[in-house]
Amino acid sequence: MDQNCHVELVEKPVSAEDLTDARIVRLAVSGMGCVNCGARVRNGLLALDGVVSADVDWEQGLALVDYVPVKTNVDAMVHAVTASGNDGRHNYRAKVIS
Q1: In a 3-state reduction of DSSP, which class is residue 45?
Q2: Nearest 5°: phi and psi at 52?
Q3: Is residue 8 in a domain?
Q4: Hey, which of 2, 4, 15, 57 has its CA 20 to 30 A from 68?
Q5: Is the residue at 1 inside a domain?
């Protein structure tokens, strides 16, 4: 891990309504090699409207995502994981496991 890999965690405000309507999905995420990779994937997921929270374990290659189904879907989350590595140095992939 070098200095260019550093990522700041984003914070996302969440409404009480979104918390009430949220569902959980687990994603298997490949390509993460350090804690900053996990932060990058987490930030990418949180950037989606409808994602309430994302807990990413880079060592296990798992992401637990709370989301509001009327605002986003698992296909968008899989795409967000891939897009979070579009810097020419990182390559992440995700698939739904439950």
Answers
A1: helix
A2: -85, -45
A3: no
A4: 57
A5: no
Tokens coding 86: 């579009």
Instruction: Please name which of 85, 74, 70, 16 lies closest in space to residue 54, comparing C-alpha atoms.
Output: 74
> In this structure, what DSSP letter does residue 24 have?
E
Residue 22 placed within a domain: yes
Q: What are phi and psi of 92, to 5 degrees?
A: -110, 145
Output the pTM of the full model: 0.89
Structure tokens at 71: 């605002």
Q: Which residue has the tokens 């984003």?
A: 10
Number of domains in the chain: 1
From first to last of its 98 residues, the chain has per-residue pLDDT tens of 555 677 787 888 888 888 889 999 999 999 999 999 999 999 999 999 999 999 999 999 999 999 999 999 999 999 999 999 888 888 999 999 98
Q: What is the CATH number of the domain that holds 18?
A: 3.30.70.100
